[in-house]
Specification:
alpha+beta; 2 domains; two-stranded antiparallel ribbon
């Protein structure tokens, strides 16, 4: 089971001392920083400069008229971190669930609560982990990039950045944009690991678009796959997929606390 990850902001920048001296002529007083009104900065983006030289992209939030400056946390890591936080409990709930139902003849409220807990955790894990991949792939698309796709071999359809985000499938984003941008292909380099990502997307789609089917077969298939799912192997594959294209984006936290 992988250690919990280091929490990062979106594309932080590290300045050296010479750069710091050039752009920071003096230190602003705490009173000024604490009394910025949101109305005065609502049309601006924020940047926080740490004493370490790290520059954090941030945003202003209207906190009862005052500007609250919040670092722009990387959503790729947030979604991954959420999925990871469910991992240990998923295995505990699965073990308890199978132990209860193995020889049980009656179904009580407590028993059903355990099933609800298990499927709630697994569906949240699967959804958040897949969302982490999708957020990462979208993050990798350059804002000025134009994507051309052949339509029925008759003409080329041109997509701008916003159209790519909304109308191009994840598979095409990975195969035609991400792989070409980095001149490498995770699925070809690590086919066995990529199987976990394929299975993850398949089950996520089944959960998000849940269908009952004939004789409840749709529900049964989702529950069976959730019970059989390789959660630890899958989250490791997703970590490796993301780090394959952006090395060390997902890395273990340097603290000694294992939560």
């Amino acid at each position: 089971m992988i250690k919990h990850i280091k929490r990062k902001t979106v594309r932080p920048i590290k300045l050296n001392q010479e750069q710091l001296d050039e752009i920071v002529p003096g230190k602003a007083s705490d009173d000024i920083l604490k009394n910025i009104k949101f109305k005065d900065v609502k049309n601006y983006n924020a940047i926080q400069l740490m004493e370490s030289g790290e520059v954090l992209f941030s945003f202003f939030y209207n906190d009862n008229g005052n500007a609250c400056t919040i670092p722009l946390a990387n959503p790729v890591l947030i979604y991954f971190n959420i999925a990871q936080s469910y991992l240990r409990t998923i295995y505990t709930r699965r073990k308890d669930l199978l132990s209860l139902f193995r020889d049980r003849t009656d179904v009580t409220e407590d028993v059903m609560k355990l099933f609800y807990d298990f499927f709630g955790l697994t569906s949240s894990f699967i959804t958040m982990l897949m969302t982490s991949i999708e957020a990462f792939v979208n993050q990798q698309i350059d804002k000025d990039f134009k994507y051309e796709k052949s339509e029925q071999k008759k003409y080329l359809k041109l997509y701008d950045y916003d159209q790519i985000l909304h109308w191009v499938s994840l598979e095409d984003k990975i195969n035609d944009i991400l792989n070409k941008k980095h001149s490498k292909d995770f699925s070809k380099k690590y086919p066995n690991k990529n199987i976990f990502i394929v299975n993850l997307k398949q089950l996520r789609d089944q959960i998000v678009h849940t269908k009952e089917g004939i004789n409840h077969t749709g529900y049964i298939e989702i529950y069976r796959q959730s019970l059989n799912f390789k959660f630890s192997e899958c989250i490791e594959a997703v970590r490796d997929f993301i780090n394959f294209y952006e090395p060390d984006l997902i890395e273990p936290c340097p603290c000694e606390i294992d939560v």
